[in-house]
Specification:
alpha/beta, Rossmann fold, 7 helices, binds nicotinamide-adenine-dinucleotide
């Protein structure tokens, strides 16, 4: 049974995708636009942002694009207020923006650690703070947080793993805090996903990575976007605090396949 505050489907929902200018975020934006969502893309890469918004608008989508750093409470609050004024509601927040962080602990400076935690984890707190008042008012909201399979632990990725593990704990706590408010919070943990950066790897490095995936293929942004669509949908209303791996089976074993 659904209550009156629950929208019927994805079409017409107002959705924010952080880091939506490229990579997985753009894949998510394409997918939500195709489903009929009204979109806000927040990113620090102004050129990529404009190109993404133009592409989506050409396909008929209602898109606002804003240069925002998700690490700035001030910028995020202003962007959320603008999106709310434009659409009257904020239904979906996809906390996708993030950066990598490959460094051994012994070689890691404190500011490197802090930048990764700030961009990947604190940003999700900041964006949630900005949209939760609207979601609480509506008695409806869908928060989808990008974690990573790396949250399980990765040698040479302590800051990145810790940030993505923090995302899991944060998501579970959000789920409990808002369980009675019509707001769900879930996390997605992708494995290896093809992004522009991946294309710069040498063919043999790509092949080696591919061999570690039980399905023997590298994930695509669409694979992640399909999972986001489920968590963003009103139909997933009884699912909260979960981590969904989108990794071709890579999370199932500690051994390389
Ligand atoms: N690609 C993978 O294999 C993979 C695997 C697991 C998890 N992830 C996660 O998926 C998400 C997207 O990754 P991606 O591979 O598409 O990365 P990407 O670098 O291709 O895209 C990230 C986007 O976030 C934006 N961004 C970075 N810092 C920002 C900030 N402070 N404010 C606003 N925007 C900012 C960038 O400009 C970029 O457009 C990240 O959270 C990443 O950790 C990726």
């Amino acid at each position: 049974m659904t209550d009156q505050a629950t929208p019927a489907g994805l079409a017409g929902l107002s959705a924010i995708v952080t880091g939506g200018a490229k990579g997985i975020g753009l894949g998510i934006a394409r997918s939500l636009a195709e489903a009929g969502c009204r979109l806000a893309l927040w990113d620090i890469d102004g050129d990529a942002l404009e190109a993404a918004a133009e592409e989506l608008r050409a396909g008929g989508a209602d898109v606002s694009a804003r240069r925002v750093s998700v690490t700035s409470m001030e910028e995020v609050q202003a962007a959320a207020a603008e999106f709310l004024a434009r659409n009257g509601r904020i239904d979906v927040l996809v906390n996708n923006a993030g950066i990598g962080g490959d460094k051994l602990v012994t070689k890691m400076a404190l500011d490197f650690w802090q930048r990764v935690i700030q961009t990947n984890l604190t940003s999700q707190f900041i964006c949630c703070k900005a949209v939760l008042p609207a979601m609480l008012e509506q008695k409806f909201g869908r928060i989808v947080n990008l974690s990573s399979r790396a949250w399980l632990g990765n040698r040479g990725q302590a800051s990145y793993s810790a940030s993505k593990g923090g995302v899991v704990s944060f998501t579970r706590s959000l789920a409990l805090e808002f369980a009675r408010s019509g707001i769900t919070a879930n996390a997605i943990a992708p494995g290896i996903v093809e992004t522009p950066l991946f294309g710069t790897l040498a063919p043999e490095v790509r092949q080696d990575l591919q061999r570690t995936v039980p399905m023997q293929r590298i994930g695509q942004a669409e694979d992640v976007a399909n999972a986001v669509r489920f968590f963003a949908s009103p139909a997933s209303g009884y699912v909260t605090g979960q981590v969904l791996y989108v990794c071709g089976g890579r999370s199932l074993s500690s051994a390389s396949v």
